[in-house]
Amino acid sequence: MNDAAADLRFVPLDAGDTATLDAWLRLTEDGADGVPLSAAPPCEADLAGSVRFAPPGTALAGEVAFLDGEAVGAVRLVLPDGAPVAVVDQLLTASKERRQGIGTALVGRARALAGDHGRTLLVADVVQALPGGPARDEGPAAFAAAVGATPADGPEGVHQWLDLARHDPLAGGVPEVPAGYRLQRWGTITPDGFAVAVSELGQSLGESRPETWGEGPEAIRTSHVRRYERMRVGRGRRAYHVGVVHEETGELAGFTSASKTTGNPEHLLQGMTVVAAGHRGHGLGLLLKLANLAHVREYEPSVRLIETANADDNRPMIALNEAMGFVPQERFVSWEVPVVPAG
Q1: CB count, 10 Å around CB of 249?
Q2: Alpha carbon 189 to chain centroid distance?
Q3: How many angstroms from the chain centroid is the CA of residue 60?
Q4: Rounded to two decimals, what is the model's pTM?
Q5: Inter-axis angle of helices 223-234 and 192-204, to 10 degrees?
């Protein structure tokens, strides 16, 4: 480790420490790479809110690295409940301080933080180019390999973008709703009458739910969706939903979700789309997405760029997105390394 890395001072990232939080925000915003169709520009309200509101079922642990009083790096881990892994949410070195050993020092801190929380494996998604796709920086994958990480088994993620200035999937309108179904819109907060169904569909991805999910107080059965809503509100995000209701039973047969930050009026994140197994084969997935896009554009007319990601083995959803005009831009490859180095 060189002198710069040896002199680093690590300060916990805490919502109550305004000076450290502000330094981290500047570092994160300055570190945005600006690669087209790779990531939305950082939103300060969303970033600050993320420190206070972790994703449901997780905790966060982060630190900012200071050198001579200046923030030069940061590391943040997502710690899923009941799992032996720590997911690297951020590992960032200030651009002018790169190749000074700071990145390697941050990996060391990530390992220490993960170990402090009883984790045995560090996992990180690394952006890499798709075969025949736009070029992507090969440095992150090379760095991961240099610190001993290896690509994990399992599917990769495919990151797709839709530029509405190039292709408007609503040019032909929203498809007709199949007989026996009706659409239902809502915003950030799910109506009480759908909260259980949204929680169960979201966790089961539309497959058969465990029998035990029908047991217990409604407050527990709806907690999954309510925790997501708390996170979104805390981060200043707005969400738009469309559900499809089976009229004969009154059951929610599926839903889709999209959300956006306050600081990026042109950007939209297409979230989960799920249809219950017993209602598939009626074109409900495409209907939901197009109906929700129409919903979004009524309230967010500045939206132009939409991103979404799916595991590469989820070919039906990737094909559905491509039918809407989404274009694959890059892949997310999961790399992993033991918290305690081998040897």
Answers
A1: 9
A2: 19
A3: 14
A4: 0.91
A5: 100
Close Cβ partners of 220 (under 8 Å, ≥ 6 residues apart): none
**pLDDT-flagged residues of the chain (< 70):** 1-4, 206-222, 342-343
Specify if 310 maps to a domain. no
* Span 213-235, pLDDT tens digits: 444 454 446 678 999 999 999 99
Domain assignment present for 319: no
The helix (H) or strand (E) run that includes residue 330 is: strand 327-338
pLDDT at 33: 74
- 113 and 193 in a common domain: no
> Are 190 and 288 in a shared domain?
yes
Per the listing, tokens 């309200």 go with 45
Domain that holds residue 196: 181-303
Q: 251-286 b/e with 16+ CB inside 10 Å = b?
A: ebbbbbbbbbbeebeebbbbbbbbbbeebeebebbb
The total domain count for the chain is 2
Please choose, from the candidates 49, 99, 47, the residue with its C-alpha nearest in 3D space to the C-alpha of residue 73.
99
Do 186 and 282 lie in one domain? The reply is yes
Q: Are residues 114 and 207 in the same domain?
A: no
CATH code, 101? 3.40.630.30
